[in-house]
Amino acid sequence: MANWYSYNFGDPSLPGSYRKTTLPPSCTDGSTICAVYLDDTSTIPGSLSFSDVTQYIANAQATLTPQPEGNPFFVYLKSL
């Protein structure tokens, strides 16, 4: 089952920087990672489910747009 994971702190390319949320993010774009959508159910995402979105995270940081391009988005950004 897929869930939203909010980026909290640290390296955005590491699963330990995220926590599962019960609500979808209200952010969509900006310059900082906001949340990722993963096929995982644990409080902190596992490395196997997280590895699928690492390229989307890198692309989001490079383009400052939600990823992947088009819908649905799996990586959202926010303004600080």
Structure description:
- It contains 2 helices and 4 strands; from the N terminus they run E-E-E-H-H-E.
- With 80 residues, it is of the alpha+beta class.
- It has one domain.
- The protein has a 4-stranded antiparallel sheet, covered by helices on one side.
- The longest helix has 10 residues.
Provide tags for this entry.
single chain, 80 residues, alpha+beta, 4-stranded antiparallel beta sheet, 4 strands
Topology:
Blueprint: E1 3-7, E2 18-20, E3 32-38, H1 47-51, H2 54-63, E4 75-78
Task: Give the helix tally.
Answer: 2
- Low-confidence residue ranges: none
What gap, in angstroms, lies between the N and C termini?
30 Å
Q: Measured on Cα atoms, how large is the radius of gyration?
A: 11 Å
Q: Helical proportion?
A: 10-25%
Structural class: alpha+beta
The overall strand count is 4
Mean pLDDT rating: 92
Largest sheet, strands/sense/barrel: 4 strands, antiparallel
Cα shape: globular
Spatial arrangement of strands, main beta sheet: 2-1-3-4
Order of SSEs: EEEHHE
Number of domains: 1
Strand content: 15-25%
